[in-house]
UniProtKB/TrEMBL annotation, chains A, B:
GO terms for biological process: negative regulation of DNA-templated transcription; regulation of secondary metabolite biosynthetic process. Its cofactor is Zn(2+). Keywords: DNA-binding, Metal-binding, Repressor, Transcription, Transcription regulation, Zinc. It comes from Streptomyces populi. GO terms for molecular function: DNA-binding transcription factor activity; transcription cis-regulatory region binding; zinc ion binding. The keyword Glycoprotein does not apply. Pfam families: FUR. This is Transcriptional repressor. Belongs to the Fur family.
DNA sequence: TTCTTGACTTGGACTCTGTCCATCGTAGGA
DNA sequence: TCCTACGATGGACAGAGTCCAAGTCAAGAA
């Protein structure tokens, strides 16, 4: 739970009420919120918090590797606090719901050297798309 | 080459000079352009073409299944004319270059039923990220 | 505890990407 | 050649995100 807060403090992240609230919002429910949704929830606890501050805090959490940025559609990025367990995403094409999934296999190994064109491949993202039970 | 133009005409796509230019831009170099880049190239051939028209044409080409929309970053979508050969993408994290790649294996088969949460999974996108030779 | 200061927050302006709409123009069939 | 429904135009608008100058404050020093 507030492991996250402890880790951040331990890493010298200057703790302000705004940053605390953003971290708590992400640490709470295990969902994939957009920046605006994070802002909306943060405002419930700290009415004066500004959009810019939420964007700043999210950007820093991403840089620190505590949160993953997910662009499932061309719209707003979503923020995934489950950064310490490798996983992929399953997205509903209709309502946009995102679920973490754990496929078997290692997609990195599936890309032969001849298909790497000299790139240094560092990561792979897999996005499964379909319809969730409610939308099907 | 202008297979694309033929196919579109054959499918009853009303051919205007604007639509022709957009199709030709995509059909030419085999790169992954943003809508603005498509517009810039279209303007070279047809100076009066408007942004809205380019967006309309791209949207229709996507609906027709002739072009694939790719969101590799949270920024502008890119349009991939290589729609008739299944492939995945390799993206340079520094300069944004996108290359088509053909991994082995079938990632759809790697998602066990227990990890599908009742979703009807229809498609899977794999994005490899790293640094291209010029940026490394 | 109080002071100090550099880092953080604010809100408004701005950019970028994309969509919408009323009006005008034209491809292609009769 | 003429008609007309479909397409193009461009300007306004919207959503997501960034930037900046000015004000505020966390946390270390004294």
């Amino acid at each position: 739970m507030s492991d996250l807060l402890e880790r951040l403090r331990g890493r010298g992240w200057r703790m302000t009420s705004q940053r605390r609230v953003v971290a708590e919002v992400l640490d709470g429910d295990h969902v994939h919120l957009t920046a605006d949704e994070v802002h909306a929830r943060a405002v419930e606890r700290l009415p004066e918090i500004s959009r810019a501050t939420v964007y700043n805090a999210l950007g820093e959490l991403v840089s620190l590797g505590e949160v993953i940025e997910v662009s499932t559609d061309g719209r707003a990025k979503r923020y995934d606090p489950n950064a310490h367990h490798p996983h992929q995403h399953l997205v509903c094409s209709s309502c946009g719901t995102v679920r973490d999934v754990h496929p078997t296999g290692n997609p990195l190994a599936d890309l032969p050297a001849t298909e790497r064109f000299g790139f240094t491949v560092a990561a792979v993202e897999v996005t499964y798309r379909g319809l969730c039970p409610s939308c099907a």
